[in-house]
Amino acid sequence: MPEDFQRHTCRYVRNSPVDWASLVNTVVELQALFSALLPQNCTLMALLVQKFGGSSVADVEAMKRVARRIVETRKAGNDVAVVVSAMGDTTDDLLDLAKAISPGPPPEREMDMLLTAGERISMALLAMAIEDLGVRARSFTGEQAGMRTDKSHGRARLLDVTPDRVKAALAEGYVAIVAGFQGVSEDEDVTTLGRGGSDTTAVALAAALDANVCEIYTDVDGLYTADPRIVPSASRVTRITIEETLEMAAQGAKILHLRAVEYARRFNVPLHVRSSFSDQEGTWILVGRPLTSDQEETMEEPLISGIAHDKSLGKVTAVGIPDQPGAAAKVVGAVAAQGVSIDMIVQNVSTSSASTSDISFTLPESEGAAAVAAVRELQHEMGFADVLYTSHVGKLSLVGAGLRSNPNVAHRLFGALADAGINIEMISTSEIRISVITDQTDLADAVRSVHTAFALDADTEAVVYGGTGR
Q1: Structural domains present in the chain
Q2: CA–CA gap between residue 137 and residue 19 (Å, rounded)
Q3: How far apart, in whole angstroms, are the C-alpha atoms of residue 140 and residue 123?
Q4: Could you give the CA distance from residue 69 to residue 293 in angstroms, rounded to a whole number?
Q5: Beta bridge mates, 13
Q6: Taking a C-beta distance cutoff of 8 angstroms, is the pair 98, 108 a contact?
Q7: 312 — phi, psi (to 5°)?
Q8: Which DSSP string do the residues of 124-182 spell out, in sequence order?
Q9: Each residue's pLDDT tens digit, 106-158
């Protein structure tokens, strides 16, 4: 067989787009088939990025279990790049140490230097464990892996990813292990991407390497119709669109970092969420696929993909704002100027006086004090009556492509909450989502009631293998 044909055949097999979800259970058969057709020195290979969260590498035995999984993947003929989080509760332990040393707010630069130590420990130990199994491994910090970020310590955003050293290590046959959650700014200072940032590191690395798939390993068997810690009868979702996943992540589902899902959608990175504690297939997150396709397939799609919840919100209400153009813009602008992210906003006729309105918005509870202070500064200028703050607010979100075509979903949702005696304080919708605000103490009951009302309960209980580490 001509050498050019062999080279181009190998390149085609390695780089062609593959529907990995449909190949999961037939890889062995396909390898046998292709081995009979391809030249003797050409093998069917894939490039995989695997991310392991804190619960997956929580202790020595967990670290060794992860190493065995990586080695199995490598020995199957695949190139493997790994992104790893800090072990178990290491990040929380480091935060506690910082508070013990400095009760006041510590310098953000030094906090990033401290917190990145957790991932560096993990990457080095994992490389040792893999080497001990007879496979070469090489670890890299975020900086060494080419993760360039802006200057925002504690919440940095990726500007560029140039993983030249990772590519070189893969080309030499190494398993490349990258410390998640971290990068380096243009000033050469170490930065962190915020909690859950290792997911973003993994997806960004997969995009830069043009990987076939990015596997996110966690302590549950994929994405579920609700948090199995709240709803033990939650059903595992085998496939879900990237748009639905983005809504779930934005509304509080903790299985994937929101910025990681945004990155995957932008760069068309296939995602596969699995458990590091089992061999279950997990959940495939489909990219480049419309929310609806032909009629036959749409008829088979579930009405609801899942229920997300968020119990970390607060609510601010500006009471008695003069009902005139530009009032809402001033209030929201003042809050945005403090770097506070607003979630849901509702404006309605005020009960305090005629010709005025109330503006209520939800936001992360940790940012409540800053938002209230910003709105109070406007009170004298705009002449509104009061500023109220409510903590311990809960949000429930129903997500699914079926919402766009089924007018009964909202009625069913509100009916389930009414039957459970749960009051709705605010409502927000999108094309594939309905969100409601409730009291935080009612949130768990609300999730369970709605889950049952939409017939999402499974016959068996979901298994949560580890803790809450990501």
Answers
A1: 3-16+24-296 (3.40.1160.10), 306-453 (3.30.2130.10)
A2: 28
A3: 7
A4: 36
A5: none
A6: no
A7: -115, 30
A8: HHHHHHHHHTT--EEEE-TTTTTEEE-S-TTS--EEEE--HHHHHHHHTTPEEEEETTE
A9: 999 999 999 999 999 999 999 999 999 999 999 999 999 999 999 999 989 99
